[in-house]
Design goal:
By secondary structure, the protein is an alpha+beta fold. The protein folds into 2 domains: 81 residues; 98 residues, no CATH class. It contains 5 helices and 4 strands. A 4-stranded mixed β-sheet has the order 1-4-3-2. α1 packs antiparallel against α2 and α1 packs parallel to α3. The longest helix is centred in the middle third of the chain and has 29 residues. The termini are far apart.
């Protein structure tokens, strides 16, 4: 197997490893992907002191190694959070609860990205996916990190918040809004009558 094929294998291994860790942290697998990680680390070690790489191959190798180390640090922090009983994923944007009478004022850059009215998020997964995609897209647009936001954790957050707001405001539906205000992404919730 030539160098280019092995670098492609390394790239594919890192991509699959990322997927396997996401499955693990979302509860789909009870075991971390140690075997796959071992294979990826062996490929990295194999080429760490390989002197016959061309400039382009060395650049590609270094880029892949940098990506792997970034992911490794993220997985280490998430594992530590899990062991300490903390949420595995970082918190979502602050959620402001509003009443029907609240008014919105803003600058010319402020805009509404997405609005969702739901009564039972468990049965409205399509709506939740659209809200999640809008949130991620808005975060990208504002230059905020998106790699730490995961759909399963977001869904759990929305389920809990909807239940709490329905009880608090004695309502059947809750309206969620993703907006950009002052260059920051804002997720708000409001009880609907």
């Amino acid at each position: 197997m030539d160098v280019e094929q092995e670098l492609t294998m390394l790239e594919d291994g890192i991509r699959r490893l990322k997927i396997e860790y996401e499955i693990f942290f979302n509860g789909g697998n009870s075991r971390m992907p140690f075997d796959l990680r071992w294979r990826v680390e062996n490929l990295i070690k194999k080429y760490s002191e390989h002197s016959n790489l061309t400039f382009a191959q060395r650049f590609r190798y270094n880029t892949l190694v940098g990506k792997f180390h970034s992911y490794s640090e993220l997985w280490r922090r998430m594992t530590r959070n899990r062991e300490e009983g903390k949420p595995v994923y970082p918190n979502f944007p602050s959620l402001e609860t509003e009443t029907e009478e609240s008014t919105q004022t803003g600058s010319s850059d402020d805009r509404l990205v997405c609005q969702l009215v739901c009564s039972d998020p468990e049965k409205e997964s399509d709506k939740l996916e659209n809200l999640f995609k809008s949130l991620v897209e808005a975060k990208r647009e504002c230059g905020e990190r998106t790699d730490t936001v995961q759909f399963q954790a977001f869904k759990k957050f929305i389920l809990e918040k909807t239940s709490k707001l329905k009880e608090q405001f004695n309502t059947n539906t809750v309206c969620y809004t993703v907006s950009i205000e002052s260059g920051k992404v804002k997720l708000t919730a409001k009880g609907k009558v």
